[in-house]
């Protein structure tokens, strides 16, 4: 397998392990993960910097709430206040509820999902500061739990439920972050296309002292009419220096 692919896959495994350990990984764990690649100390320093940008500490977990915005902290405080109304479950009750949920009991599944709400918050905090709102992460996690509690029948032992539900929550949050990044990238490409046409139109309009047509802009700016019309469509025909009558 290509060395770069191995490196990328290993990095994702390290990130996932760190999330499972509360956004923390030891230096030894990191070095062991990349042992087969024969990295130098300078490369490990770069990896550590990368992990830090993803809220992952080496040897010591960072403060998860440090990356929350003021708005997110306000939301979190209000949401945690709501959760105080949920009766806490002792280990005995949780195991009994889990067993019943595994057997298909709907009330037990609902209670187990309720018990997991505070845990979803703690997991969501581990993914803060990655370009998505904490509220959305919690929402994704809650949906994952609601689905997960009805899928526990495949397990043999109740203690396996925590790992299964935790994984489903993390997968849901990571998937949401990934989708958001992809959407942001697509949005940026659209913005770049529109801005390129808008800049060219503004420059030509300044020379002609009037709005320009699509045909004029295509001819003078070296852009295809198709490219210009696509930019107009994406902008909702709001590129001000192009006359709408000819678009």
Account of the protein in words:
By secondary structure, the protein is an all-alpha fold. The protein folds into 3 domains: 3-62; 65-183, Orthogonal Bundle (Rna Polymerase Sigma Factor, Chain: A), CATH 1.10.1740; 184-246. 68% of the residues lie in helices and 2% in strands. It contains 10 helices and 2 strands; from the N terminus they run H-E-H-H-E-H-H-H-H-H-H-H. It has helices spanning 3-20, 27-33, 41-53, 70-83, 91-102, 106-126, 134-148, 160-208, 214-221, 225-234; strands at 24-25, 57-58. It has a two-stranded parallel sheet with strand order 1-2. Helix 5 (91-102) packs across helix 6 (106-126), helix 7 runs antiparallel to helix 8 and helix 8 (160-208) packs across helix 10 (225-234). The chain is elongated and about 80 Å long. The mean pLDDT is 86.
Task: For the structure shown, list the relevant keywords.
247 residues; mainly alpha; Rna Polymerase Sigma Factor, Chain: A; two-stranded parallel ribbon; 3 domains
| Basic shape | elongated
Identify the CATH class of the largest domain: Mainly Alpha
N-to-C series of helices and strands: HEHHEHHHHHHH
Please compute the radius of gyration using only Cα atoms: 26 Å
Number of domains in the coordinates? 3
- The number of helical segments is 10
- Can you tell me the CATH topology of the largest domain? Rna Polymerase Sigma Factor, Chain: A
Provide the CATH architecture of the largest domain. Orthogonal Bundle
Number of strands: 2
Helical/strand content category:
mainly alpha
Unreliable segments (pLDDT under 50, ≥5 consecutive)? none
Strand order of the largest sheet: 1-2
Helical residue percent? 55-70%
- CA-CA gap between termini: 51 Å
Residue fraction in strands? under 5%
Q: Describe the sheet with the most strands.
A: 2 strands, parallel
The whole-number mean of residue pLDDT values reads 86
